[in-house]
Every structure is written in structure tokens, then in C-alpha cells.
Amino acid sequence: MKISQEEIKKIALLSRLEVKEEHMAHVEKELSDILSYVAELDALELDGVEPMAHAVPLHNVLREDEMKPSLDHDLALSNAPEAEDGYFKVPRVVQE
What we know:
- There is one protein chain.
- By secondary structure, the chain is mainly alpha-helical.
- The chain contains three helices and two strands; from the N terminus they run αααββ.
């Protein structure tokens, strides 16, 4: 399938892309190749083919949600530059 340079200019304008004249022949070939491939795909008989989200079936890809002991409070605060009343102390970011 062939695409014209005028169509490329219109698509470039609509998509806010700059296609320089020296690159126009290359872009024309690339887009024509893409459209030809899409036309080949469109010609395939796909009745009865179930849509899929992934090419390889995935099962149990998530780990089990298990409770584990958390970091000790005092150990976590030991790495803080400043702590106050058992909490991390940080600089104020919202002025009153």
C-alpha cells in the first residue's frame, strides 16, 4: 500500500510532528511498509480465534499475600536524620 507525501504532511501536521523534506522519502517508505503489513494482517481469516492479552499463558504470577514481621520501630528510626516522639521529623513543606 502506498502513501503519498501529501498524506504524510497532513498526518505530521495533525500529530504535531516535523518531517523534514530530506527525510520524506524514508518516512514514505516506512509508512508504506507498515500499511502493507497491516493489509496482510487484515486479510487473515480470524473467525473463531479467541482474543488474548498475552502471547504466552501466565498462571499464578503473583506471590501469595503472606503476613511477615515488619521492621522494628526503633531500628527504622535509628536511620532517620531526626526523630521526635517516635516519628520521623521532616522539614515543613506547607507554610501556614
